[in-house]
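name: query_chain
kind: protein
chains: 1
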Amino acid sequence: MRRALVLLVSFASTCAALAYGCRSFDDAPAPTSDGAAPDGPSSSEGGGDGAGPDGGDGGSVSCALGDTPTLLTTTGSLPSKLVSDGRNVYWVEADTTLMRLSLSDCSKKEIEKADGGVITALAASSDWVAWASGKKLHYTSAATDVVSIKSTDAEPETGLIVADGQAIWPSPSNNHIVSFDLAKPVATTVAVLVTTPRPLLAANAAKLFFFGLDPDGGTIVNLWWHLHSSFTPEVNGPLATQQTPALMTANSSRVFWTSDNEIRNALVGGGVMGARGSSVGVNAMVADDAFLYLAVGSTIQRIGSDSGGAFQLASGQVAPISLAVTPGAILWGTSDLKIMRMKKPPI
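structure:
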């Protein structure tokens, strides 16, 4: 069912016209021919025994990608909002400082410290990294290494994602979901709805998924979707109704979320909602096309995307709080100020 909406807002900006200007950083590792750097050095790259630099904080790190958890770096404070573009891993420290670590040589750099505010959201795809601080959207392309800062009244506060070349976020002041084309750049409101108190977004290559009230009115929180290729302000669905979501992620076939102490899922094309187990103790979750990965208590676990129970990948972790995946690895941040990585086990 398609719900046509009436409000469409657009505005445009270029780097030269931005109120806060542009700047660059130049130490990102070069991508491979397919646009993504390897998860770790190969023998032909001179990786030696895989030992990386100290990282500048006294913690010995290793860039060797192994079958068991490996310490990539220690951090100055809790490593929150962990994301990866396949070449690097990014995280936020003390809610104010954006950090980047190369997955090929473990070199680490402070990218930005929020000016008088906090970094409220961070997201990445294979081509773009975007983050939010106050009413500013910050973003960079792997192709140029130029950081652009856009001042916007559509506050990118929480729920920011990057998908299909767009930065997408819910604007709490006017109940919009805003889509900002990172390549042009042009921003357009793609949907208008009353969002939940904690806005949640997820996306795959084709669709955006989000929770909100029925745009025709009502008080029930439902799961909706919108095509990336659509430039009209309409929502589709619902895929699920009467939800109280807390965490959310998606892959090419399913949307996953936590609600009422359950991990729930729905097919992206619609169908019967299913439950995949308890969400008690789940601090973070992320999906690839084969599995759903969970940070639960002191463990890292995975569940088959379509079926199967939970399988423990790592134990003895100190309260992991954030998760990210690359094509070949799982990464997580822990409450004892570490970034860890391990190879994805065979399917």
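note: The chain has one domain: 9-29+37-204+282-343.
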